[in-house]
Design goal:
Layout: H1 21-26, H2 50-65, H3 67-76, H4 84-104
């Protein structure tokens, strides 16, 4: 396996890679279907001046615009976003989802 792409349709339309036999061979019997996605982000301390955050954001945006970087991310099946509103929405959604799952499973904070 070379990684499962949550948005494979960008590269190979009408193909759902999570249904491939190699994937299901790794799932123990009785485990229901599920999707787990990794998310990565760059954060700074709240004390970092806005001007520094702006420079960092511009550098990340410039790097993501480079064709070599885009090609590598596509090869790895990574979808990159460069705006904080998308990240904020993702974090809110994921926090709600995983809080419910952890609570239902009986996990308690350490």
């Amino acid at each position: 396996m070379y990684g499962w792409r949550g948005r494979i349709g960008m590269m190979v339309p009408s193909v759902n890679t999570t249904m491939e036999s190699e994937f299901w061979a790794t799932v123990p019997r009785g485990v229901p279907e599920y999707v787990f996605k990794d998310h990565y982000a760059i954060f700074t301390s709240p004390s970092v001046p806005a001007s520094v955050v702006g420079v960092l954001a511009a550098a990340v945006k410039a790097a993501l615009a480079e064709q070599q970087v885009q090609d590598l991310l596509t090869e790895l099946g990574i979808i990159a976003y460069d705006d904080k509103e998308t990240l904020k929405q993702l974090l809110e959604t994921e926090t709600i989802k995983w809080s419910k799952i952890l609570k239902a499973a009986g996990f308690q904070p350490a």
